[in-house]
């Protein structure tokens, strides 16, 4: 019985396992995705298929696949032994940093050309997207190729026969200001990404991009990764320059010039970020929809900066998309109009100068909107805060919940930063008005009897509050005129102050009655 047991088992999988040896690619980093798909196709294949199919599948998967990343070679690896020994360790690191910048420019140029050749042109030729849509997504990407080719050529001219570069500072100081050309491209990225995501809903576009992603030339990068490469390259320049400066000797002529180059690139990036922020702000303003004309506020249309935005939940568990512009807080509901994202303004926007923030503790508020939460302790909300008008008359208060502690703290910090200037202004105004509001000097002021006489008349006439305010203002003006004559008469003890306040409050109560 024991000898007959294997006869009940299938012998066919043994042949399959032995055939898997042919699937292993000789390349170091084989394509895991393709290898897994081949195994799956073998396991699901029926016995009725001919050996030709197996041979075809094996030959297809046996094709070598390039590695996902480019093979990077260090500058020091290209030197001969004698040259390497003649240079100090610091100089080798300096040349490595310069070579990394040069190699990065070469890679960037290749990627920009690839984006045009492998994505833009085929989609235009196959009518997968219109020329207008492609221009909106790709922008003027081609125009930046000569810009980076110029830097690469300048670095090549500065390279000696032994592979070293003596001075790079003057080249960078002359070239870096030209990066201002990226303002338009970076400003358009948000709208370009939105259009690309919308077009991905089209089956033809989705199929084309998936085929490109699985092709060796893409290095497993999607289209947006190629379109975002210029932006990621821009933010690397300060790091590369600082690395070169760090390994440059203090007596080298490049020291001061590199410091100037770092200042230039930081200024360029600041200008690009500012322009990009304004474009992002206008992009979301254009997508706002108002249910009532009263919701429209000129501070929304005039905003140039978007301090913070993201998804939050209200007390009922409904999702809101909140925008904190520089001067106003706008709560919205995400909606879809003709397959395009829009934001419907929810309630009345709150100007920053009238905004009050309350940082709530976990469990202070019970959140609704969840059927499951009604039967457990999950209704005790976490990561919550409240925003409302300082004046309670509008009657609007919003309890908002973030996804986690980190996002809550981001919102709280942004709101506090936005309202801080107005709080300081209000505090300064209160300090200025403090001497005018104090009335304890009336008894010691020689002109005070006139004020009290007016108060008595106002009580008799029945229009006490109005005339009391007028008399107080007159008292303040007389007080200001007499201030230089007798400063000592303005000093009173705390007992006099409390007595006077009680008298005034009593008079006001009597008048109101």
UniProtKB/TrEMBL annotation:
Residue ranges with Polar residues bias: 451-461
Transmembrane segments: none
GO BP: intracellular signal transduction; positive regulation of Rho protein signal transduction
Organism: Chionis minor (Black-faced sheathbill)
Keywords recorded for this protein, A-Z: Cytoplasm, Guanine-nucleotide releasing factor
Domain DH residue range list: 93-275
Major subcellular site: cytoplasm
Cross-referenced InterPro entries: DBL_dom_sf, DH_dom, Endocytic_GEF_Adapter, GDS_CDC24_CS, Net1_PH, PH-like_dom_sf, PH_domain, SOS1_NGEF_PH
Location relative to the cell: Cytoplasm
Region (Disordered): 47-69, 436-513
Name of the protein described by the UniProt record: ARHG8 protein
Basic and acidic residues composition bias: residue spans: 501-513
GO cellular component, one term: cytoplasm
Pfam families: RhoGEF, SOS1_NGEF_PH
Biased composition regions of type Basic residues, renumbered to the chain: 487-500
Domain of life, per lineage: Eukaryota
Occurrences of domain PH (ranges): 305-420
A molecular function (GO) term: guanyl-nucleotide exchange factor activity
């Amino acid at each position: 019985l024991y000898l007959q047991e294997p006869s009940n088992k299938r012998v066919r999988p043994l042949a399959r396992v032995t055939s898997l040896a042919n699937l292993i690619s000789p390349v170091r980093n084989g394509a895991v995705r393709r290898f897994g798909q081949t195994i799956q196709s073998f396991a699901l294949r029926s016995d009725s298929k001919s050996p030709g199919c197996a041979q075809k599948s094996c030959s297809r998967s046996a094709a070598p696949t390039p590695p996902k990343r480019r093979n990077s070679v260090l500058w020091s690896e290209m030197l001969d032994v004698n040259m390497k020994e003649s240079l100090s360790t610091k100089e080798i690191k300096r040349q490595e940093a310069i070579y990394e910048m040069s190699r990065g420019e070469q890679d960037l140029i290749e990627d920009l050309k690839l984006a045009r050749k492998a994505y833009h042109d085929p989609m235009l030729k196959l009518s997968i997207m219109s020329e207008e849509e492609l221009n909106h997504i790709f922008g003027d990407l081609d125009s930046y190729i000569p810009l980076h080719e110029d830097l690469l050529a300048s670095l090549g001219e500065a390279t000696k026969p032994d592979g070293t570069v003596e001075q790079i500072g003057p080249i960078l100081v002359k070239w870096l200001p030209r990066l201002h050309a990226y303002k338009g491209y970076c400003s358009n990225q948000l709208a370009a990404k939105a259009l690309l995501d919308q077009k991905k809903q089209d089956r033809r576009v989705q199929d084309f991009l998936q085929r490109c992603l699985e092709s060796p030339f893409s290095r497993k990068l999607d289209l947006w990764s190629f379109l975002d490469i210029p932006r990621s390259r821009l933010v690397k320049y300060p790091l590369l320059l600082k690395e070169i400066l760090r390994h440059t000797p203090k007596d080298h002529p490049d020291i001061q010039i590199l410091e100037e180059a770092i200042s230039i690139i930081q200024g360029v990036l600041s200008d690009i970020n500012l322009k990009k922020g304004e474009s992002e702000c206008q992009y979301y303003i254009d997508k706002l929809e108002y249910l009532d004309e009263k919701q429209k506020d000129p501070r929304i249309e005039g905003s140039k900066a978007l301090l913070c935005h993201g998804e939050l939940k209200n007390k009922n568990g409904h999702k809101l998309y909140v925008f904190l512009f520089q001067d106003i807080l706008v709560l919205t509901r995400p909606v879809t109009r003709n397959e395009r994202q829009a934001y419907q303004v929810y309630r009345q926007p709150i100007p920053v100068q009238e905004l009050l923030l309350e940082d709530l503790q976990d469990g202070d508020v019970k959140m609704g909107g969840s059927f499951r939460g009604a039967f457990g302790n999950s209704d005790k909300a976490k990561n919550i805060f409240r925003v409302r008008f300082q004046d309670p008359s509008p009657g609007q208060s919003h309890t908002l919940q973030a996804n986690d502690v980190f996002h809550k703290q981001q919102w709280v910090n942004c709101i506090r930063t936005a309202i801080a200037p107005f709080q300081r202004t209000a505090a300064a105004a209160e300090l200025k008005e403090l001497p005018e509001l104090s009335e304890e000097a009336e008894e010691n002021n020689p002109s005070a009897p006139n004020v009290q006489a007016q108060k008595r008349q106002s009580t008799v006439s029945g229009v006490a509050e109005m005339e009391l305010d007028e008399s107080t203002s007159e008292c303040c003006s007389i007080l200001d005129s007499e201030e230089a004559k007798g400063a000592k008469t303005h000093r009173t003890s705390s007992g006099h102050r409390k007595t006077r306040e009680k008298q005034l409050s009593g008079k006001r109560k009597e008048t109101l009655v």
